[in-house]
Amino acid sequence: MSKKVDFYFDFASPNAYLSHKVMQSIKERTGAEVNYIPVLLGGIFKGTNNKPPMEQFFGVKNKNEYQNIEMQRFIDRHSLHSFKMNPHFPVISLQIIRGAIAAENDGYLEDYIDKVLVHMWEEPKKMDDPEVIHSAFEESGFDANKLMEQMQDPDVKAKLITNTEAAVERGVFGIPTFFVGDEMFFGKDKLWEVEELLND
Hints:
Layout: E1 4-9, H1 14-30, E2 33-38, H2 41-48, H3 53-56, H4 63-77, H5 94-105, H6 109-121, H7 130-139, H8 144-150, H9 154-170, E3 177-180, E4 183-186, H10 191-198
Parallel strand pairs: 1-2
Antiparallel strand pairs: 1-3, 3-4
C-alpha cells in the first residue's frame, strides 16, 4: 500500500486545522509522506452542490449542537487545546489559499500552512482582510509584499482553479479529504482509518 497521503486542504475549515495537527503524529508513526493539495472549499461546494454544515443542518434541532460536542471530544482526545474558533468565521479563504499555491511554487508549502493556520485557528484573525493578511505574513517571517503580489498572479489563480476542479472530479465534496492510493476518506474522524491503511 502507498505510504503517501493526498490531503485536500483549505484554511477555511476548522476541521482541516485539527486534521493537520493529527496528521503530524500519523506521519511520525507511519513514516508516510503527506502531499498537501490546496483547493478552494467554496469552489468544491459549488461544484458538488454541497453546503457547509451550519447551513446544511440549519433548523435541524440538536444537530449542530451535537457536531460541536463531537469537535470538542476530538480536541480533547488529541490535546489540541491551542485551537480557538475564529470569531470572524466564516472567513473567505480565497486570498490565503492562493498564497498556499504561491508557497508551493516556491517550495515552502508546509511551513506556510503551519504558520497561516496559527493566524486562522490559534491566534484567530480576520484573514480575508488584505491588511491583516499582510501583517500576518510579516509576523510569520514571509516576504509579505511578494506573497501579496503572487496571490494576484494569473498562473496562481489558474492553478487553484485546476486543483479544485480536479478534486471534484476525483470525488471530493468537502474538506478535509484524504486519499491513500485510490481510497478516499472524508473528515477528521476518518484519520484512524487513514493510519490503519498506511500500516497495512
